[in-house]
């Protein structure tokens, strides 16, 4: 199976004058994550490096905590696309926040050897990443 990396430059309208630079930034982040996977690196390492590139790039409105960014993204999703769903934001240090617009939404995130997961809003379980791997 070939690895896949998908990134996005945020929610909302990108002004014409920023479009080309934004495209360059997301392409750079995707290529960086993909290169890590191609060399046998972990998915978490690929995501953290791709996110770090974007957070350190002034073309994007990064610099928010994972909690702030996930709250903003969820608000946008609810207001603009009437979406039921969720948002998980990972920062360049591997910290994350998960926000959901419904009471029940399965989610999972791996960080520093731990798998964090839940099914209901506010539910949060932790177990070692390696525990159930086959």
UniProtKB/TrEMBL annotation:
<protein>
    <submittedName>
        <fullName>Isoaspartyl peptidase L-asparaginase</fullName>
    </submittedName>
</protein>
<comment type="similarity">
    <text>Belongs to the Ntn-hydrolase family.</text>
</comment>
<dbReference type="GO" id="GO:0005737">
    <property type="term" value="C:cytoplasm"/>
</dbReference>
<dbReference type="GO" id="GO:0016787">
    <property type="term" value="F:hydrolase activity"/>
</dbReference>
<dbReference type="InterPro" id="IPR029055">
    <property type="entry name" value="Ntn_hydrolases_N"/>
</dbReference>
<dbReference type="Pfam" id="PF01112">
    <property type="entry name" value="Asparaginase_2"/>
</dbReference>
<dbReference type="GO" id="GO:0033345">
    <property type="term" value="P:L-asparagine catabolic process via L-aspartate"/>
</dbReference>
<dbReference type="InterPro" id="IPR000246">
    <property type="entry name" value="Peptidase_T2"/>
</dbReference>
């Amino acid at each position: 199976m070939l690895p896949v990396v998908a990134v996005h430059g945020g929610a909302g309208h990108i002004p014409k004058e920023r479009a080309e630079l934004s495209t360059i930034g997301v392409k750079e982040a995707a290529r960086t994550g993909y290169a890590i996977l191609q060399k046998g690196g972990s998915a978490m390492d690929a995501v953290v490096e791709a996110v770090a590139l974007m957070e350190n790039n002034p073309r994007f409105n990064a610099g928010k905590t994972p909690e702030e960014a996930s709250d903003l993204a969820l608000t946008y999703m609810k207001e603009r696309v009437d979406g039921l769903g969720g948002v998980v934001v990972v920062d360049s240090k591997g910290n994350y926040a998960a926000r959901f617009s419904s009471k029940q939404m399965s989610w999972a995130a791996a960080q520093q050897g731990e798998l964090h997961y839940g099914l209901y809003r506010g539910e949060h379980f932790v177990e070692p990443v390696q525990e159930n791997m086959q």
